[in-house]
Amino acid sequence: MDKVNILGVEVSAMTHDQTINTLIDAVDNDKKKFVVTANPEIILHAYENRDYFQELSKADIITADGIGVVKGAKLLGRSIPERVTGFDLFISLLRKADQKGNSIYLLGAKEAVLNKTVTYIEEQYPNIKIVGKHNGYFDWEDPSIAKEIAGKKPDFVFVALGFPRQEKWIGKYIEQFNKGVFIGIGGSFDVLAGEVKRAPEIWQRLNLEWLYRLMKQPSRWRRMLALPRFVFKLYSYKQR
What we know:
Elements: E1 3-6, E2 9-12, H1 16-28, E3 32-38, H2 40-48, H3 50-56, E4 61-64, H4 67-75, H5 86-100, E5 103-108, H6 111-124, E6 129-134, H7 144-152, E7 156-160, H8 165-173, E8 180-184, H9 188-192, H10 201-205, H11 209-216, H12 221-224, H13 226-238
Parallel strand pairs: 3-4, 3-8, 5-6, 5-7, 7-8
Antiparallel strand pairs: 1-2
Helix pairs in contact: 1-5, 2-3, 2-13
């Protein structure tokens, strides 16, 4: 698998479809995969925080979740064909799981949001087996959730704890699992539950989804400051 080193983080250069095929193949062969969907904020945080970088280093696939990562690779003279977002992977994997009758476990979000997500999946993807779920409010030092997941052996574990919690949680427990695709998908449960509206398709095609989210949630402006810092670090990194 071709990868692009961006601030020390090895980002996959696979397309969305190639990523899906790789993950489905892993499930079909009872293998284990840890997937991170990384935007510039995540890569920058890994660059500046050694502990978090160590957790990301455990991942099998780190996708470019954001046009900033794709542009960053180009700045370094490398190529990533397209962004591969957590939400798009989530939906594509649900479709595949429905076709194949796979099992899933859902971890994260508020209880009400989680229940709406479960209802949506049951209605839209009736062949999926939901073997377990838990909201995002629990004691990290309590290994009972990880033990439950290990015992139920789901094909996919969708972790919607948000950055950086979801990557840290998966990284902490990934060695306890023998199979399954574990993927952090941020606020995807909120979108599926109808609590948050995703940007219209035209905004997505123009790679302006970040701007749409900022307009809808102005409080995100502080997080957006990571982008110019990311670009500055890239220029410094390029000079090495």
